[in-house]
């Protein structure tokens, strides 16, 4: 038994190591190479060119402001919403809890586009409305700016921060705050001296993870930053490999190595912060009682604030896209606009050969990629949880490493690799890159599910003569259905909306939905973009519902047998 587990562990280390370390190695090799086909000629010139570019200083400044600003906004909003949803008597808490994480399901490129449609300075719907009502000469807001990018990225990252902070707040023992007030401390002093220090690991973890996600973000800087000529590292790197007669992949790889090192360092810090969370435990099984804080007269105003935030984050982007898909051009909603509504944009998109090809490719990558990814994740999670060896620890580190990979950077690494193989410019290249990049999204829910299964179940099956594979197929997997469904849904939705890796690796014939939507945005075809975006959201929702129904039916069949 131990021999078969060791063989499985090292086989998985080889597979996951190849998927995660291969692009990093190729990125490193590429940074010292003169070109995509000149690996034998090593040079330091790419590093010199990358780090002596006069434009780099401005790009770094924009990146730091964008990353820190959006992470701070996401963390503050998450803390505010989590506190109200978990600790107070604010109305409709279950609804607000769901709406707080809905932006996770909206592709970042579509969320960014919806804000561009609302607040672009030329014909943004909200800007146009305010100019007409207030008789202004210029648009009051400009989403094509650094503050606009921070706003949208902060709203997009808020659900992740919320999912980290909310559990910590829900298990916080309110008797600590009550003791502080008994000794004369006010509400604000108690918050600063008691509540926030106890929540510090969760808050810092949310902030650091927000930095990682913002550093890897491409959709927001591309859709909102590029029109306003506000470059951050992600768009700066993409310009190196996409503009001019001779794209400089080596210089992009050289700069990408620094971005990758920073991301990996931040992920190590994030894991250290979450690992130390036990030092701040306040619920130990005795004396804990969850309590609800009465908002009293502040209940109504705070309810309105939370409702407005949820409307902005979850409802408004979809409504803006739906409305824009039905009108001939961007215009403020009015009786005249409603009279011009038609299905013209939808018909044109659904008859466009490139859009249909992108649709087929994305569905294929979502369904097949998620299935293969979950299959690999089952074995990886099994080894991580059940095989407690140093090799299993190495596998866990390798599987989590890709979480630190910025999509543009790792896409460049895969470019260096695939260009030497028949996989270049194929769906298979995208499939491998997707699985490698998003493997943690499959491993994490399955590892949590494996933790809940006692080892006696597996041991009893083996004692009765079943092989390890039979035990896994007949005993373990049926009990893992909730985790499998969650992992499949996560991976399928991620694959369907993926942009950052795709924008580097996608070529004619291997277009995907997110890249086609970005092309529509570059061409100013907002109606077609919105129609295709709604199709993407509908497909994502359909996949989620089908996976959930399949999981329920499978569990019912297992119970009946």
From TrEMBL:
The keyword Ribonucleoprotein does not apply. InterPro entries: MetI-like, MetI-like_sf. It is a multi-pass membrane protein. It is found in: Cell inner membrane; Cell membrane. Keywords: Cell inner membrane, Cell membrane, Membrane, Transmembrane, Transmembrane helix, Transport. The chain crosses the membrane at residues 57-83, 95-118, 143-165, 198-220, 249-270, 302-323, 363-385, 397-417, 423-441, 475-496, 529-551. Residues 60-270, 359-547 form the ABC transmembrane type-1 domain. PANTHER family: INNER MEMBRANE ABC TRANSPORTER PERMEASE PROTEIN YDCV (PTHR43357:SF4). Belongs to the binding-protein-dependent transport system permease family. This is ABC transporter permease.
